[in-house]
Amino acid sequence: MCGIVGYVGHRPALDVVIAGLRRLEYRGYDSAGVALALPGELWTEKRAGKLANLEAAVADSDPPPATTGIGHTRWATHGGPTDQNAHPHVSSDGAVAIIHNGIIENFAELREELAALGIHLRSETDTEVAAHLVGRELPRCDGDLAEAMRRVCRRLNGAFTLVAVDSARPDVVVGARRNSPLVVGVGEGEAFLASDVAAFIEFTRDAIELGQDQVVEVRRSGVTVTDFDGQPADVRPFTVDWDASAAEKGGYDLFMLKEIAEQPKAVADTLRGRIDRDGRLRLDDVRIPPSELREIDKIVVVACGTAYHAGMVAKYAIEHWTRVPVECELASEFRYRDPIVGPRTLVIAISQSGETMDTLMAMRYAREQGARVLAICNTVGATIPRESDAVLYTYAGPEIAVASTKAFLTQIVAAYLVGLYLAQVRGNKFGDEVRHILDDLAETPAKVDLVLDTVEGVREIARELADSPSVLFIGRHVGYPVALEGALKLKELAYMHAEGFAAGELKHGPIALIEDGMPVVVVVPSPEGRSVLHDKIVSNIQEVRARGARTIVVAEEGDEAVIPYADHIVWVPPCPTLLQPLVATVPLQVFACEMATAKGHDVDQPRNLAKSVTVE
Ligand code: F6R
User: Fold this and answer.
1) What CATH number labels 3-247?
2) Domains 3-247 and 255-442 alike in fold
3) Ligand 1: residues whose CB is within 6 Å?
4) How much is the pLDDT for 529?
5) pLDDT bracket for residue 478 (50, 70, 90)
6) Chain centroid to CA 610
C-alpha cells in the first residue's frame, strides 16, 4: 500500500518522481504528493484523488528546477483521503518533508508528546508525527538527516518506510524501513528510492535490497546503509531482469487485459529451466536439504486473496502426489489461532508482491515455532522471500493491474512444482510419473492460448449479464477454488455481489439464494473416464437450473453431457483435472474484466483497493 519514490541526481526531480509515481499508482491511489528540495527551499504540492489531480495541480503551478525530490501515492489508513492528509508532511520549521508507507502504531502517544510541546498537527495522519520528530531531532545531530531519522525510527513502533528530504542539505535523500518495502536504484551520478523497482526501471536496472531496520542515504555520489544504531549494514545488490516495457500497457487498453494475455508466457517462464536433461525436477532455489524434506509431516500454505485460492488449488495436488497432509489457511487468521506447527512442518507462503503483511507475519510466526518456510513469490528481493528458508520465484513479470491474474496461474504452477519435487525427493512418485505430469504442465501455455482465442463469447455473456444484481460460482474439487477466484474477481472489479461455493454445499443452504434468472457460473471438471466428480456436477447444474438459474457452464470441449443444461457454454481444452484451473480460470477473469468495463469501472484500479497490502 502506498507508493514511494525518492530521487537525487542530475535530472529534473519532478519529472522523475511523477514518472515513478505513475508506475506505482497501483499501490494506492486516493491521493498523491511531491516535495522538491533546493538549497534553503522546500516546494510541495499534494492533492486528494488520483495522480492525475496532482499532475494537473503541478502543471498549474511554477515548480522550481530541483534535482532532488520525493513523491507519494497513498492508500489511506490514518485520516481520510484529503489534500491535508496527503503526503508529504512537513516539519514545523518547513525544512523537512517526509513520505511514509505503513502504520506507526504508537503515533497517538507521540502526537500527545508533540502537542504538549505546542506543535500543532495539520493532518490526521500518523506520518506527520514522524515529520515533526525528525525536524526537531535534526538540529540536535548537526543537521545529519540520516542520524535524525535513525533516532526517530528507534522510537517508532509498527511497520514503516519513511523517506525524507531536508532543504538545508538538498544533496541527499534518506530512507528507513521496518517491515514495509523500500529498494534502492543506483544509476550513473544518480540514485533512487522506491517501494518497488518499477518506479526507476526506466533509468537503471541496478538495485539494492535493503534489510529490516535499516537507514539508507542516497546521493549522486553513492549509497550508504546502516542499521538503526548507525552501524554499517550488509546490503544485497541485484539486477532487475525485466525492462521498462514490461510495466507498460504495450498497446492494450488495460493492464489487466495485457496481463491476462501474458498468461501463456508467464506459465511457460515459470516452468522453464526447472527440469534437467533426464526429466527430473531441479529446484535450485529450494535450499532445504532433501533429508529435511523427507522428514516433513505436514504442509501449511499461508496466503491472502487470490494467492490463497492458488494455495487451495495446490492442496489438492500436493496431498494427492505426496500423501502429506496439507492445510491451506488465510494468513490473516493463521497466527491468531495457536496453530500446530513445528520443525517437521513445511510452511508455503504464497505472495505475488512478497510484501503482504498478513502473509509476512504468518510466516514469521511459523519460523518462530521452528517450521521451515518456502516462499512462492513474484518479486525478487521482497521481504517474504528474503526471510524464507527457500524461495521459488514465479516468472510472471510485473503485475500492475490491482486484480491478480497471471500471478494466480504461476502461483499454481510453482506450488505444483513444489509438490512434485517433494514427491520426487520423498519417493512417492517414480521419475516417469513426475515426468508425465511435467509434460502435461508443459502443454498448458498452449492451452491457455487457445482459451484466449475464444473469449469473445465470454465478453458477450458478460455484457448481457452486467445488470444482474448477483452472480454465483460453483465448482467441485479444484474447481471449487476456481469458483472462489471467479467470484473474487467479480466483486473487486464489477463491485457486484458474487459468491463462490463448493457445488456439493449448495443443497445445505446457498441454493435458497437462487431465483429466476440469477446467473450461476459452473466450473465442470473433465468428463474423462466418466468421473463421479463430473457426474455429480452435472446433477448440480440441473438442480440450480430447475430453480430458475441462468447457467454459464465452463466445460471441456466435447463434454456433451452439459449441453442440455447450459444457457451459455464456455469451452476449454481438455486437461487432466488437477491442471484444469490453469485453463478454467481464464474465462472467469475475462468475464469480470468485461463486466466491470460494461459498468464503466476503473478496471486496473478498483475502488478501495491497493495492490500490495502492507498493513495488517
Ligand atoms: C485479488 C488480489 C488480492 C491478492 C492478495 C495477496 O485480485 O490481487 O487478493 O491476491 O492481496 O497479495 P500477494 O499475492 O501480493 O500477497
Assistant:
1) 3.60.20.10
2) no
3) 304-307, 351-353, 356, 359, 403-404, 488, 492, 612-613
4) 66
5) very high
6) 9
